[in-house]
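Cross-check.
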Amino acid sequence: MNTEKLFTQGCVAQNLHAASKKQLFQEMAELASKCGAVSSDKVKVRDIVAAVAERERLGSTGVGYGVAIPHARLEGIDEVRAVFARLETPLEYESIDERPVDLVVLLLAPANASSLHLKALAQVSRLLRREDLRERLRSAPNNEALHLLLTENRAANAA
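Predicted model, tokenized:
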């Protein structure tokens, strides 16, 4: 799976406003629905929010360095998809390094795709572990630049 397939055009947002995790999950679920990452006929925004919130109760998906990767597996999703947001204001997130989060990837996978889900999670984690990429994402001027940064090294990032 390459990052271009994970992050489809239009599934990125710069300066997303969220004052809480719940609002963040809501905004990102709405973006996933609007950009076509999930079919709004099969998966409702509230179902995404509930699944991501349930996963978050098991432990924070704040992985450090200002990055969070909330994720869930859901019925009605056909393939693994990701939605990216750079937050307008860093959000307290209970991350492992206790730093607020400003870069968020919502990862959604089919209910029966645990190995693909884990591969995509590892791939996104590797990608965002790179300090140079995180800094470039933080300074990107628009959604198109964000998308390009997330997908530019497709061959190197293939899982």
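The helical segments are 3-6, 21-34, 45-58, 114-129, 131-139, 143-151, 154-157. The chain has seven helices and six strands. Passed to J.P. for a second look.
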